[in-house]
Design a protein that fits this description.
Strand content of chain A: 25-35%
Oligomer: homodimer
Helix content of chain A: 10-25%
Number of strands of chain A: 30
Number of domains of chain A: 4
Largest sheet of chain A: 7 strands, mixed
CATH architecture of the largest domain in chain A: 3-Layer(aba) Sandwich
Number of helices of chain A: 7
Radius of gyration of chain A: 32 Å
CATH superfamily of the largest domain in chain A: MoaB/Mog-like domain
CATH class of the largest domain in chain A: Alpha Beta
CATH topology of the largest domain in chain A: Molybdenum Cofactor Biosythetic Enzyme, Chain A
Largest interface: A-B, 105 and 106 residues
Structural class of chain A: alpha/beta
Shape of chain A: elongated
């Protein structure tokens, strides 16, 4: 009698008989982080730049505004002419013209004169303040000031929004909607943004039917492809999922060599006789991590093939989600210039029931939030994907912990 | 002398001479919420369904799994045959076949027999438990059990992930990546999802240059178009921005009648002589709200034209952002089936400086978070868009408050 598991066929150069030793999560993440840097940048138009990450500092060549402008609808005046004006001391001025947005008054505002002015219009020469309409009675030619303004009042100064020559945004900034407005206002119509990672899905398993097929007999429908597609999109990657690949070494190897920054392999990642991918990766590239001390997704693995990062995600869908979130999602975010941190919102709340784990292993426990307390799900096997749709989020129990007693405050990452 | 402001041309049926009275924010939101319900649903494929909102309950026609399956790599056995087995009491069984994923063992497992089985493979008849490989020594024909298993151990039962006939997801759920996996596993390849609102941008202003143009003379580049495009995308709308519309009544009216669920008008929304839009809306549709007691964006307005919701957003970019966030974004989210709530993360922290407001007016104050305290920006005029890019978020000061003293705990909505 020999020892199980069955040797992997054709694995003469890579002997894999079960996970002789599992990597710690810390070691696995350390390896991964050493591989990660934002991709090169590409030109991206303003209209599609929201959420993208700048690959360059943005300097402004211009001041915004580029000229002194009125901040109110009213009258451009010499502030000194309004001194002492009130409802009981109306001071009369002569209206000598008007200024609208991009329609300057071409003359000078002299003593005792005013120019009708709209918000955003350039200030006429000679005037140094704007008297708002609310403080005025006027006809076509004259106005009576009923209030006083000090020099500079209601006048926007050149450069007060953006000064010329300054750095407006730094490399690495993820662009907000209002950032696009500022970029536009300084005359920037496209930016250099970190390229979005190209992510190839490689879903294997002869038992699988295409996503969304009605399960039939002993064949089940691919759950991981659609889930991974949604996760990659969330993390800013561009997903390419050509469908299920048969469990044949040459097909898998060809897919691993597809044009992509990241390959996500779902299924065939463990040490069984059908698990070709680790062997292929070790033979043709680098299988750096295989087997991690965590539950679920202990068969997860990572490596490289040429320039591609390859993630071995277990076929069990909860394991697949967990391994994606710990490893692949992090890589996709960092390659795309984003923060490595999970995009999940966090809350802190007490446990409604104890949460048992094992020292030496990281646990990913799904919880429901009920009455402000986190309740671990009873059914939580790695194959029960609905445990991640019925739950509100998850708690990570670290490797140095045996779990947490009822009432202990835990950090919950919320799915949404 | 007549009273300013200047009457609006052609406004014989709508008299607008400044905002005689401003609506409260509460009144404005009450009117808006009365207009809002999710749009009708449309069929959406799984591959693009992440983040979409279900317009139907989803029932499962099938059980997942549809058959009893092994949860481990190992041997399908009769649990009774393993009773008492241990490293010191190895019990021998005869291997009579194998089962893989979607490859059933066609025979029966009798007493003293075992079938080699892979994770996910259908359980053979006669067997009621799986003995994991780790508890076994085996050659091709025999195994020695070194542990015992109870009936049902390591066997996934039919329907334990999803029971047939149950409601898997309810109408109104925003689909998570893992939801797509569950939908796929129950044979659902497309869902009815709430339609994404079509949002027409209508940017006016003769002083405006197209977005991203270098500002020139007294002409400035459109900042609001790109910003609104990013905001609409964030809130799940589909934006249509054909560029700047000249300040001509017939062009504006045609644009207001474009095929859209929502029209966002940027600029020309106040009560000045160039502000055509409120007049047009009142004459051809309904101008329900015009002027809101808030700062910035007091000239904001809302109404309807046929089936379209029309939002009058002030041209000053901070006002535009603020009015979008209070009104238009809410509408786009609810029309698309999402929560009315802001998508911003919230934190609570003390004020680093006092924040002054006025009773009767809601204030939208930009703050920087520094050393765990919220610091209101010094320069915060409605025209200074960079106040929203230099800040980390904003504080809303309610209408019944004169502001908050230094050290007061405030709720900050974080831009990101």
């Amino acid at each position: 009698m020999t020892t199980e598991p069955v040797p992997v066929e054709g694995s003469s150069d890579v002997r894999m008989r079960g996970f002789a030793r599992r990597h710690t999560l810390t070691d696995a993440l350390n390896w991964l982080d050493d591989q990660l840097a934002p991709l090169a940048s590409q030109a991206v138009g303003l209209d599609v730049a929201v959420g993208r990450v700048l690959g360059q500092d943005i300097h402004s060549e211009v001041a915004v505004p580029g000229f002194a402008r009125s901040m109110m609808d009213g009258f451009a005046v010499r502030a000194a002419d309004t001194q002492g004006a009130s409802a009981y001391n109306r001071l009369e001025l002569t209206i000598v013209g008007r200024a609208g947005p991009a329609e300057a008054f071409s003359g000078q505002v002299g003593p005792g004169q005013a120019v009708r002015i709209a918000t955003g219009a350039p200030m006429p020469e000679g005037a140094d303040a704007v008297l708002p309409v609310e403080q005025v009675e006027a006809d076509q030619e004259h106005l009576a000031a009923q209030g006083e303004v000090s020099p500079g009042k209601h006048v926007g100064q050149p450069g007060e929004d953006v000064a010329a020559g300054t750095v407006v945004f730094e490399r690495g900034r993820r662009l907000r909607p209002q950032d696009l407005g500022v970029l536009s206002s300084i005359g920037v119509s496209q930016v250099q943004a970190v390229r979005q990672p190209q992510v190839r899905l490689l879903v294997t398993g002869n038992e699988l039917l295409p996503a969304g097929s009605m399960p039939s007999g002993y064949r089940i429908s691919d759950a991981n492809g659609p889930m991974l597609g949604g996760l990659v999109a969330r993390d800013g990657g561009l997903v390419h999922n050509p469908g299920i690949i048969a469990d044949k070494q040459e097909l898998i190897l060809a897919a691993l060599r597809d044009d992509a920054d990241v390959v996500l392999v779902s299924g065939g990642s463990s040490v069984g006789p059908e698990d070709h991918v680790p062997v292929l990766l070790a033979r043709h590239g680098e299988l750096a991590i295989h087997g991690v001390a965590m539950r679920p997704s202990s068969p997860a693995g990572m490596g490289r093939l040429d320039n591609r990062l390859v993630f071995l995600l277990p076929g069990n869908p909860v394991s697949c989600l967990c391994a994606y979130d710990f490893f692949a999602g992090r890589a996709i975010r960092v390659l795309g210039g984003r923060s490595a941190d999970w995009p999940y919102r966090m809350i802190y709340c007490p446990l409604a029931r104890k949460l048992v784990s094992v020292v030496g292993r990281v646990d990913y426990a799904r919880v429901v939030i009920r009455d402000g307390r986190a309740e671990p799900l009873a059914i939580s096997g790695a194959s029960i994907l609905s445990s991640t749709t019925r739950s509100d989020g998850f708690v990570v129990v670290s490797a140095d912990s045996e779990g947490h007693p009822v009432g202990a405050e835990v950090k919950v990452y919320l799915y949404d």
